[in-house]
Amino acid sequence: MERELSELRKVDRFRALPPVTARTGKYLELDGRRLLNLSSNDYLGIGDDSELLDSYLDECRSKGYSMTSSSSRLLTGNHPLYTQLENELSRLYGRQAALVFNSGYHANIGILPALSGRHDLILSDKLNHASIIDGMRLAEAQSQRYRHRDYGHLEELLAAAEGRYRQVFIVTESVFSMDGDLADLEKLVALKKRHHAVLLVDEAHGAGVFGKTGLGLCEVSGLQKEIDIVIGTFGKSFASTGAYAVMDSLFRDYLVNTVRPFIFTTALPPAVLGWSLLTLRGQVPMASRREHLQQIASRLRSELVACGFDVPGESHIVPVITRTDERAVSLAQRLRESGFLCLPVRPPTVPQNTARVRISLRSILEWEDLAPLPDLFLGRAGR
Ligand SMILES: Cc1ncc(COP(=O)(O)O)c(C=O)c1O
Predict the structure, then answer these.
(1) Which of 6, 233, 258, 380 is the Cys-Cys partner for 114 at CB 3.0 to 4.6 Å?
(2) Ligand 1 centre and the CA of 131: distance in Å?
(3) For residue 166, which phi and psi values (nearest 5 degrees)?
(4) Given ligand 1 and candidates 102, 103, 128, 131, which is best to mutate, with the most ligand atoms within 8 Å of its CB?
(5) What is the pLDDT of residues 115-125, one digit of tens each?
(6) Considering only CA atoms, which residue is closest to atom 9 of ligand 1?
(7) Ligand 1 centre and the CA of 298: distance in Å?
């Protein structure tokens, strides 16, 4: 272990838990210093929404939400708030059913292994999140990765798989967490129909941010009923914890009976479910926050590109590609010294030679907060 850890230190890949001492609103306190927080997934700023927090505290008092569920859902942990939350999700998405999980990680390591068997094939975008990769590792099915957002490549793999498998599954993120670019859901739905595949879309970074009512990228193209399973998380835009999958009732019944990380774990406490229900409903009318977020993101992206930086994507996740680990670390350090917290992301989280500084924007930020960034990236004093 010591040898391995010292190797990690040598190549700048040793990770340690940051000593965060406070986190409110736009700022975060690290090592006693106040920094603008550009590393949060609370994209709509709901975590600090005093109106929602006040109504939650009122509900806690009047309804006496417990802090424990005391058991798994299939035993005695299935509080009525689960039913309310799942009914609300199916109603919003216009789907037959929904199922709530303890986290997105639980959902992703559970669903694919439950649905697929050794006569099946999983086709996954090369840049899918680690939780999806771990789900594929746990599954008995064979798996192949198609080049990132290369649907021609996906179609080749689908054609080659024709007649060779019991069922083919396609899995993708909607908004890619490290690149901030978007999957083409229309193409994916067309492909899944043509090849009779099952399509799973992880909206972890799309829910809350995209769509008129915040259902995610699937809502933008009106495809939420065409995707077999849409997965979303409560830990990001919805400022809570847990995750959900919306789907047909048959899928739900099957998952309740087969997903091991759903069956063999203690249910979420009512205190969390009550807050998730409130934030899920509360984010629906937040269209102006979503618009503002996209506006500041596209302005920052175009200013950084004008300064000569490689900034892929088209969302509120703005990665500045540095290629080398050292450059990512030193740029992030320079930004931190100037009062901005955005973290360097290095392999193995991203592919080799694509290290980056990842800026994650939120609707509570104003352009004035971000204006110094291009100069700081260039190594000039902020404007
Ligand atoms: C695309 C994606 N899926 C799933 C997850 C896991 O979600 P959770 O944090 O709820 O476990 C994450 C988050 O970190 C993610 O980025």
Answers:
(1) 258
(2) 7
(3) -65, -45
(4) 131
(5) 999 999 999 99
(6) 104
(7) 24
Measured by CA distance, the residue closest to atom 6 of ligand 1 is 104
Domain count, the chain: 2
pLDDT digits (tens, 9 = 90+) for 304-329: 999 999 999 999 999 999 999 899 99
177 annotated active-site: yes
Model confidence over 342-365: pLDDT tens digits? 999 999 889 999 999 999 999 999
CATH, residue 219: 3.40.640.10
Question: Residues 262, 157: one domain?
Answer: yes
Domain containing 349 equals 2-37+286-378
Q: Of the residues 257, 283, 309, which one is the last residue of a structural domain?
A: 283
